[in-house]
Model the fold of this input.
Amino acid sequence: MRTVNDIFRGVHTALITPFTSTGSVDIGAFKRLVEYQVDSGIDGLVPCGTTGESSTLTHDEHDRVIALTVEYADGRVPVIAGTGSNATSEAIQLSQHAEQAGVDAVLLVNPYYVKPTQKGLYLHFKAIAESVSIPCIVYNIESRTGVNLENETLLRLMNEHSNIVGVKEASGSLEQMKNLIGLRHGEFVVLCGDDNMTVDLIEAGGNGVVSVAANLAPRLMKDMVHSALNNDFEQARVLEARLMPFFKACFVETNPIPIKTAMAMKKWCKEEFRLPMCPLADHANYRIIESAIEGLNLPVADAFQVNLHQ
Done:
């Protein structure tokens, strides 16, 4: 029987949401992207997170993108659906729909803008976990939400709610992550939320990453992460050094603008965003992104054949 560590170990791609030139979700591009990920050996898919521009999707679109991910993945890899919100009732509604759609877990970002207390964070995640029966992974990212989920609060959630099984840690503090790894119980999964810190986190005992860069470079990310998980840190560091310019380029402006631009350069999607997300503000950043992906030998979408009409 597979354990939580088995299911959620490795590289899980924080999928972009492609849009057409008229602003609707580009279903064909999305199916091609999912097939590319699975074919490249990625360990899991994460639709409707920050990278998927979830805050700009309607509820119907959000539900549909999650359902399509489950359909296209077809049981080949786990699907961890982003269902967080700054309103607990909305997060419950989204999480329950995702469970009905057949996802393997939900990813629950800290409530943003409202800046709840640690007690409020505890009660928020507790209420969501009690509303579903599937695994819940908390997403701690102070830079986007304005509040840090302290380890003491997270450990309380972990100890009191059996379906809170892990955390995507994007606090930016390796010290906080190491402290959590030292305190967690054996099955609790710690996934990195920053591509450039992934090898460091795995070396400290972490379990993998929810990756932005894997949208375009899934095979390289898989090789880097699995080298580290297999204790081949020499090879992992070689791949990390190769990918580091791309990691940095993915954040020359606000995520997901750079990664979606890079994907458009390789024809995986159109360079389309929903306001307030918009194309790169600084034209020089196009060259930074182009330079970062040169030499990575990444495929162009046109060369990846998949039946988009099934």
Observations:
- The chain has a mean pLDDT of 94.
